[in-house]
Hints:
CATH topology of the largest domain: Dihydrodipicolinate Reductase, domain 2
Low-confidence stretches: none
Mean pLDDT: 94
CATH architecture of the largest domain: 2-Layer Sandwich
Strand content: 25-35%
Number of strands: 14
CATH superfamily of the largest domain: Dihydrodipicolinate Reductase, domain 2
Radius of gyration: 22 Å
Order of helices and strands: EHEHEHEHEHEHEHEEEEEEEHH
Distance between the termini: 62 Å
Largest sheet: 8 strands, mixed
Amino acid sequence: MLSVGLIGYGHWGPNLLRNLVAHPAFHVAAVADPSAARRLASREAGHDGALYEDGAALIRDHACLDAVVIASPVSTHYDLARATLERGAHVLVEKPLCTRSSEGEALVALARRQNRVLMVDHTLLFTGPGDAIRQLVRQGRLGRITYCEGQRLNLGLFQPDVNVLWDLAPHDLSLLTELQDELPVRVDAVGQCHVNPGVPDIVHASLRFASGWTAHFHWSWMSPEKVRRLVIGGSDRMLVWDDLASDGRLKLYDRGIAVPGSAKAGTMIRPAYRTGGWEALPMAEGEALARLVDHFAAVIESNADSVADGARGLRVVKLLEQIQFALDRSAATTKKPS
């Protein structure tokens, strides 16, 4: 049985603790959180191991640790993950991996030198829709992918340490890296700040890749409705994931266009339309986080590659950096003169 420490018992920590306690491969040896009330809550949730106020102290002082799960604020991820790897333990860190790609590169290199697992909690990849989309793309059922459009909206939750981009986008970008293995050559983004100046709570982003296809996303903490929707356009079929749909959350459409090979100079091309039907695709049931925790145990046991390893987490951070740079550029060019 693997002895594991959990750092952070706020929003996501209780879900992680519940799944770690339930898994036969793990024994939760210690929990760390700066709040005494939250530490007590971990006791009430079934944790009977050591309690720490400080995550760094858990890593440094606890006698036996095979792995550490980090669910603390994003700004602490790098230091805690580095300390865990330097100690010689495996790491599962909440998304995003860190706040800078230079930090991510250092963590990936350190994990490789230490021969330890560095994994990121990109839970979307372990949902039924996320896994099904990855399989469809791998099998080539969509044909050549030409575009991707996504919405992830809700009223809140406003985060104390990151903007809406760094909070919500890692979900969609983790799946995007499964569709496209290159970084975009152009990124445009605009944001709005309704609450805190300089901290966007709505972001629209457009990414263009060298291969010609594009991705467009809308992330928001300011929507009256919860929306989780992704459209992927392919040359052969199109896919729609609507997480709140009542008639099938994942639909594969036999629809699209056919473009004639040539047209007379100066004339508009008129495509032919393919308007076939659609099918609701079967998906794995059960809690995604339980599958992720099980995957973490299996990767530690077998030293196998992970779909959510540090290198993939680093690619997500690089995408976040590109979009953040575009946001900053947009804010600078639209700022009113004083």
